[in-house]
Design goal:
single chain, 3-stranded antiparallel β-sheet, 33% strand
Length: 157
Amino acid sequence: MDTNQESLACPSSRADSPQSAVFGIVDNRGDFPIIRYLEHPIAATPEVLALAKGEHPNQVFRFTSPCQGSRCGHFAEGQCGLPRFLQDHLPAAQTRHVSCPIRNVCRWFHQESFNACSRCAVVVTAEYTVVDGQLINPLEVAEPPQGSYVQQENQSS
């Protein structure tokens, strides 16, 4: 794979990430969320984000943006730690290779090949608040408790 490492994309971004684009829709109709990939990424404009219709965009869409490299807490020793973490903690969700609109620039794919792809479709990005040592998803709470520490995590279901 000959792609310049600096031009790789993060497949687990958030709506507010720089140059964010939607590349999948979160389908919650089954026992667990699964990502339905679009044919092409779509810029995360205010009009696109409004399609979430009152839900937090991270619960409705899967976002990609340029990989932030060493500016990201998941990045160490020249690699993203999330695909290996997912490989170690999640069984493969897919056995066939579905079409992905960002595979040619995806950091996870360039690091782990199809091992990353087999878990990617069940990754949903969420933000958590740590309260008394427990993770609380503020997307499910109207307002996080006062004085809480907000930690960005990628959580899969």
